[in-house]
Each structure stands twice: as structure tokens, then as C-alpha cells.
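Handout, section B. The chain below has 200 residues.
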Amino acid sequence: MSCLLNVLLFVFVGLAKSAHLIDFSNVLHRNLGNVKREVDMARCHPTQPFRCPGDKTICISIQYLCDGASDCPDGYDEDLKLCTAAKRPPVEETANFLKALLANHGPNYLEKLFGAKARDALAPLGGVNNVAVALSESETLDDFGKALHLMRSDLEHLRNVFMAVETGDMSLLKSLGIRDSELADVKFFLDKLVSTGFMD
């Protein structure tokens, strides 16, 4: 309330002097900041669960992530990788899916999708978690290829796999040795990526 009185007093004094245009942006941003952020040295409140990186605990509501306005001091809440990941399945879900395929079919199974670098449980690509993070944070398939240093031929193969899934042509997946019992799960997983702009 006192802040509002100060603003009104400032306006009336300014009008009385009719001297200068008033810039409310700092006052409004400071006040909105109190609504949007919670500084708590212990942890974030459930209504503001996203914690900005840094030494100071600054928490913001999920609705302010990727909304075009920076709310974290370093602008992390508008980071392209973060905003892409927000649309994708969680990294843990992706990693668990990849691990399940490897556990059921052997360490070279994902070579069918990602090419020769996917041998030995994705070790040449940095491991399962690294691939899961790249799938989550890479805006497009080309970005994914750059993040993991895929060869052009492997990237084109993966593009063909995604296009087959997008068009509903499961014959390519079958020709890669993906069993009928797995087709639905693989298609479901790849569809999630396609639906979030991975092929754009």
C-alpha cells in the first residue's frame, strides 16, 4: 500500500511541476517482481517451483518460463535449450526408454536408429544420458546431429526414420529389425519428438 501511495505522490508532484515524463517501468517491474518471484534461501515454494540457477535462490512460477520476458537474473528462463526441453518428454523418461531398448536387445541395438556411433550402449555418443539430453534440448534434428557430431549419412538415416514415422510408413522400422511388438512404443516415442518441431 505504501508503495502505491509513493507512486501516486510521485505522479502528483510530477504533474504539479509539469516538468518531466515519468518512467513507470522500473516501479512496475519491481512490483511485478514481488508477485512473480520468491527469494527464499531454503527452497522454492510449490506455487513457484522453478529455481533460477545461481547462488541466490530465486524461484518463479512455471507460467513465466519461456514467456518472452526474462525473470531469472541471467535470463535462463528464456534459454532456447530450456524452452525446447519444456516441450519434450522429460530427460529421465527418454533415458529410461533408451536403456530399456538396450537392456532388451543388446548394446548395439540403437545403431539401427543413430548409426555406427551408437554402438556399445551409445558410448561413442557420450552415453545414454547424453543422448537423452541432446534429444530433449536440440530444437531440430540438425541441432541434434551437431550436438552429437553425427556423420551426415547417420543424420540422413535418422531423418528417414523420422519421416517414416511421420507418414505412418512402418516398413522402414521393420526393415531395421524393429519387432512388431516394439513398433508401437518406438513410434510413440519418435512421434513425441516430431510433434514438438524436431523435423522443422
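Note. The chain has eleven helices and three strands. Compare this with the example in section A.
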